[in-house]
Amino acid sequence: MKLVACLLGLFFSVSGFGQHLILTPYSDSRDLARLRTSASVAIHYIGNDFILATTSTEWPVGSIHLKANPWNPDISYFLVWLPEANRQEAVTLLQEHYSVLYSDNTKAIVEIPGTQPIPKPFVHGGIVRISQKSQFIPEIPEDTRYVIDTFPLIYTLMAMVDTGEFMPDIRFLEAYGTRYCESLQALQAQEWIKEQFEQYPGLEVEVQNFPYYGGSSSDNVIATLPGKLHPEEYVAIGAHYDSYSWSGNAPGADDNASGTAAVLELARILSQFEWDRSIIFCTFSAEEVGLVGSEYYASHAQAQGMDILGYFNFDMIGYHYWSDQIHTDMIAPPSALELVNFYKDVAAIYLPDFGVFDAQLTGGDSDHTSFNNNGYMGIFPFEDVPHYSPYIHTPQDLVGPSMNSPEMAATFIQANLASVGSLSVPYDPVGVKDPLQQELTIHLYPNPATEDLTIVARGNELIDITIFSQLGQPVIRRTINGQATIDVSTLSAGAYFVQASSGHQHSYARLMVGPSR
Fold it and tell me: What is the pTM (predicted TM-score) of this model?
C-alpha cells in the first residue's frame, strides 16, 4: 500500500460514481499543473494552497469531500473568508443560516438554496461564488508574447498621470453614499462611468447585464480600444465600482472608488495613443457579493474564445500605512507567475524605487480570481498585507482617513499603466513609410538583462550603439545593421543608458542590468 501511494503521488483514490465537489490542497506549481491537466478534475476555484473542484469517479489523495452531485440550478455554493479575530463566531453565525460544508481557520464553504439571501462578507472581498462554469483551462503559447521591452512613450504616459484628474472622480463616487450593487445609487454610478468612457476617443463602450441571484444588480461597464496590428489579442485592466458596508453608509472611497478612478485615468491616457493590441477597460459590479460581475465577464470571454494576454486588477490603491514606503504586495496564484514576473520587470525599468513584494491575501479576494478561474492570467497589486485600510466596509471609507495618499494611488496607476502599455505595445506605423523617412527607434530585450542583450534598431542601415553608465561614461560601443546581440555579462548590476545614432538622428533607451546568474 505504501508503494502504491508513493507511485500515485498526488493522484488518485477511487471514490464511487457520480459527481463530487471536493477541496484539494496543493503545495507548489507542479502539483497545481498536474491537477489542471487531469482529465478527471474540473477546477472551479484556485486558492493560494487549495482548489475547489468537481470530479466524476475519483479524486486526488488528501482531498476533502464536500458534496455529492452538487450542481443543481436551485443551489449555490460560496467560499466565505473568515475574520481572523473571531473566526468561531463567524462560523457559528453561518451555521445558523446555511449548511456549512467545511470550515478551517481562514475559510468556510457554504451551500445556499436559491431562495435564501447570500451571506454578508466578514472581510474585504470576503465571499466568492463557486460557479460550475468556472473551469481553469490553461493555454500557454509556445512563442511567448510577454517580452520585456523599453518604450520611450511609457515615460510620457506616466508623466500624464494627474491627481487633478483622478482624485475628483474618487470624491464624486464617494458622494453617492453607497454603491451597493442593488441600490439606485449603483445604477447612477453605472451611467456616470459609461459617460466618462464615452468622452474618450476611439473607445467602444458596452453595458453588460448579468444574472444576479434571481434579482437585479447594476451592470458591468466595459470599454474597448481596438488594436491596430493585433486587434484579436487583448490586454485587460479593471476594477469593481460597487461598495459595501457592514452597517450604515458605504462611501467606498478606497474600496473601490480609488480603483475605478484609476481605470478611468488609464482610459483617458491610453485612448490618446494607438496600440498593437486591443485594450479593455473593465468596471465590474457585484464584486462585494461574490465576484459576480467579473465572473460573468471572464466566463463569457472564455466561451467566445477571446485571447486575453493578462488582466491587471485595481482594488484599493490609496491607503498608505504611516511607517511603510510606497510599495505593492502582489496577490496572484502560481498559474499567473508569468504575468507577475512581467509586471515586476516592467516596474524595475520605469519605477525602480517602487517595491513589488510577493504576498498572500488569505482572508479575501478580488476580481483577478475570475480571470484565473477562466483560463487567463490575472494579477492583483494590492496596497499592503496586512496594513490595508482599516476603514473599508464602514462609513469611514472616505477620502482622508481611508483614501489618504494620492501619491500612492498615482504610483499604482503609473505601474499598471507601464505594464498595460508595455504588453499592448505602442503602435509603430514606421514599417509602411518610405525607409528614407523612418525615424530612428531602438528596442531592448530582455530588459533587465543579465548576460545577452538583443538590440533592435529601426532607421538607416548602419546604426552606432553606445551604452553609457550612470556617470555618462561609455562602456560598450557597437555598430549594428538592424539587430544585434551584445554580451553585457561583464557590466556591473545597475542602470545604464543606450544611445542609437545615425547621422543627425539619435534615440535613447534605459537599460537595467541584473546580477549574472
Answer: 0.77
